[in-house]
Amino acid sequence: MTMQIEFLGAAGEVTGSCHLIKVGERKILLDCGLIQGQRSDEDRNRQPFPFDPGSIDAVVLSHAHIDHSGRLPMLVKAGFKGPIYTHSACQDLCRIMLKDSAFLNQKETEWENRKRRRKDLKDIEPLYTDDDVAHALRQFRGLAYLQQERIFPNVAIRLNNAGHILGSSIIELWLEENGVERKIVFSGDLGRPDMPILNDPALIKKADLVIMESTYGDRRHRSWDDTRIEMADVLSAVMNSRGNILIPAFSVGRTQEILFLFAKYYKEWGLDRWQIFLDSPLAIEATNVFTHHSELFNPEMTALWEKNKQKSILPNLHISHTTNQSMALNRISSGAIIIAGSGMCNGGRIKQHFKHNIWRKECHVVITGFQARGTLGRILVDGAKHIRLWGETVRVNAKIHTIGGLSAHADEYDLKNWYANFADRPPLVLVHGEELALTNLSDTLKSEFKAEVIVAVHGQKIDLTKI
């Protein structure tokens, strides 16, 4: 009898979420994400899957972020023919995010191949193309929250609101084989209570095994009140220094939260003195998806949306659709707030804005989310005095602000409280975290709940019949 789970990604690291469940003859993947970070990390995406993609019967996707969804086109390209179950809002976001991922990968591959040709090396192929994305999207199956779906005779799933980004899910799985039944709960990425726009993460009461993220398992976020004050202080400081503010923001979730907060505190933060630019094609498309799923908004956002949906909620917001519109921002030396991707600063239009601003001491950079090891954003947060942009060394004179209170991830306190709602303290596997976060959260859960905690390592298998 076979009933096991194998951890094949985001085990001992944050990105590349991928977990394989085997129950009887069925094989189900939880997530299939890209590995992000240093060049050596991202090169691992080119390695073959550690299983036959054609043997996978289904994928259940927790949410649209690329470190959870980004290898799905590769999976389909390699022979996977089954359904991809996810929330309908996540399905809509994946339509734009996977297409954007393909575009960026093709551009990066072109850049890499130019360098390889100069060294007389063979060209490499992009991880996937627009056509590969189109093929993968045909296999998506959109579900609603709380809709239990029997995807095979011995496997049922249910999606619950994870409160992380639009359409993010906590996944419940009911497995049965030869009379043995087990219930697995996979947290995906958990949001925080009282976040802008979205409702709080759902609380689950019963499980035989919990698989939980631990991204911020070693720290506490600032309170929302402290975050509001901190952002107000940054805006005030920059107004006095007559510079620009650059906000590298994740196109899905963080950008929309920032726009919401700017609308909510428009007068308090003196935002009428600024010109605000949204300079990210992906973020613009993602914002449109948000408006099509307003039924998922929390009451405060619903009220703001109902009041302003016939006009912009920010009167001084400018949308940069085209490359020329983006380039025109380079001529603005003061008074601009520029929100641009990517969130970890590894690509997108934010790098162009760094080129024109980050060497200026009167300018400021506001980091609003988690920065994985090896990313340009992490290098800035760690205090780099110089960075490399397209082969050029650029001095960092701008002031770097890290506003952790805007994180869309649950912190140590939130993770602990979410687990506390499970009856009988089921065994717990920690994934999606770096070493310090994993160790700290594991120690905390063992101490406070006497929980049986496993810190997953890559390739580790757990026999679910023995839990």
Summarize the structure.
The chain has helices at 39-42, 66-69, 72-77, 88-118, 130-137, 224-241, 254-264, 281-292, 299-308, 323-328, 350-357, 376-381, 412-420, 435-449; strands at 3-9, 18-23, 26-30, 58-60, 84-87, 140-143, 149-152, 155-161, 169-177, 180-186, 209-213, 245-248, 275-279, 317-319, 336-340, 364-367, 386-389, 392-395, 399-402, 428-431, 453-455, 461-463. The protein is α/β, with parallel strands linked by helices. It folds into 2 domains: 3-219 and 408-466, Ribonuclease Z/Hydroxyacylglutathione hydrolase-like (Metallo-beta-lactamase, Chain A, 4-Layer Sandwich), CATH 3.60.15; 224-406, Rossmann fold.
Descriptive overview:
By secondary structure, the chain is of the alpha/beta class. It contains 14 helices and 22 strands. Strand 1 and strand 2 form a beta hairpin. The chain is globular, with a radius of gyration of 22 Å. The chain starts with a strand and ends with a strand.
